Amino acid sequence: MADRAADCIFCAIVAGEAEAQKVYEDERLVVFMDAFPVAEGHLLLVPKRHSKDLFETEVEDLRALIAVSKDMAEAIRSELAPEGIFVCQLNGAAAGQTVFHYHMHLIPRNPGDRVRPGSQHGRIRGDPAALVRVAARLAAAL
Ligand code: AMP
Ligand code: ZN
User: Fold this and answer.
1) Is the per-residue pLDDT at 131 higher than 80?
2) Atom of ligand 1 nearest to the CA of 32
3) Which of 32, 33, 87, 108 is the most exposed place for a label (fewest CB within 10 A)?
4) Could you tell me the distance, in angstroms and rounded to a whole number, from the CA of residue 41 to the centre of ligand 2?
5) Per-residue b/e over 102-133, b at no fewer than 16 CB within 10 Å?
6) pLDDT digits (tens, 9 = 90+) for 66-123
């Protein structure tokens, strides 16, 4: 499979051609703020190599991503102290996937919030200044 797909927004972010508030990057993956967060600190973990979904993604990319998800969860916990963290990854439009480049969501959760990942995410653009601030805090906590 080609490393990059045409007309893929996450490939454009990986290439530095589209803006994103990055929190972490290594040779295999990049982590950035969801631009339409359902909660403060909503992160996306994205392999650099393009693949559509779980079925297409190389296991080495998945292993690397799971390991980094723990570091990201620790950063969220130390900086934002949510009562819980929701981890999800959607495969196919029927499951609610809207960007067809594999990614994992990390979403801070608290009692009484009204987050419904999978049905209501990706609708309201986050305040750009707030995304910059939270990205810097999370990156500093790593
Ligand atoms: P999914 O529906 O699981 O494919 O999730 C795609 C996620 O990507 C949604 O939560 C969107 O808010 C987010 N998203 C879409 N475009 C961008 C972008 N340009 N930068 C950051 N996040 C994005
Ligand atoms: Zn892509």
Assistant:
1) yes
2) 21
3) 87
4) 22
5) bbbbbbbeeeebebebeeebeeeebeeeebee
6) 999 999 999 999 999 999 999 999 999 999 999 999 999 999 999 988 766 555 666 7
Q: Which two tokens stand for residue 79?
A: 């900086």
Is residue 124 very low, low, confident or very high in pLDDT (cuts 50, 70, 90)?
Answer: confident
**Which ligand minimizes its atom distance to the CA of 101?**
2
Mutating to test ligand 1, I would choose from 11, 99, 124 the residue with most ligand atoms within 8 A of its C-beta, which is 99
Residue 123: the pLDDT is 75
CB 24 within 8 A of CB 63: no
Residue that has been written with the tokens 């650099």 in this structure: 48
- Please give the single-letter amino acid code of residue 77: R
- Kindly report the length of the chain: 142
For residue 70 the two structure tokens come to 């723990």
Q: Are 76 and 82 in contact (CB under 8 A)?
A: yes
**Both tokens of residue 83?**
């009562």
